[in-house]
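Record 1 of the preview.
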Amino acid sequence: MTARTTRRTAAKSRIAAVGAIAVAGTMLLTACGDQTKSGSNSSTKTSGTAAADLLPREIKAMGVIRVGSDIAYPPVEFKDKSGRTVGIDPDIGAALGKELGVTFQFENGTFDTLITGLRSKRYDLAMSSMTDTKDRQQGIDSETKKKVGEGVDFVDYFTAGVSIYTRKGDDQGIKTWADLCGKKIAVQRGTVSHNLAKAESKKCTGGKKIAIETFDNDLEAQTRLRSGGADAGSSDFPVAAYAVKTSGGGKDFQIVGEQVEAAPYGIAVAKGNDQLAKAVQAALDAIIKNGEYGKIISKWGVEAGAVTEAKLNGGS
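->
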């Protein structure tokens, strides 16, 4: 769930994560369409860590960090069969909460409204496979390059690229983004896949633009492709790989071509909330050093995207 400019950097090494994602393969792809709140399984404790000492006083008093997230993006964040919020982000959130002595409370919202939710103070953080970009840091619309907000700060916690996938056995010759000219792609609105499709369509010749159909969440885009309403779909690599592995028991989709746009996911914090950003950064560094982060990354089979330190605003 990201939005970047079109720097096309292949990330072949991450292809190894496809097989590893089978660890999570038995979980069902289930969407959540409402805006209800959902706990993240964090266990709260009184923490005496240096990270906890950095937390703003009001958050310490509440004992809760409200996290805006589009909880329909398996395996990063989604609902399991019991309706519980699970995935890479909730697990990392739980570990961060333990370090900070607070509960990370994940609250569902559509992806393209999460930054607005930070500005309105509906959320304290946004954690939703969001790519850290200079445009987002500066509040710039990635397409028009116009200033649309004050921007956000990011604590970078994972690295992922973007993949194209098609119905299994029906790739229609699609291997690269250029091959999508004259075809239809289904994507989640406001993501890197959406931006890449728009940028590539402008390059298409002979009147063969890319028909782009956008959806509120990635699962809706997958449904459209599955039904034959589009020729291809695109998602962040861990999400695409998970869909390929699990949808229809592995019979619905296939990844085509190479992963592109490798870039950091960031936990977004509203500008001016420096104390919270530093606390989250310190907590992430702590769980990387104590091994909890590595356990979570291994659990979900996405070791290729692991980071070794918590960077602030490391995106380009």
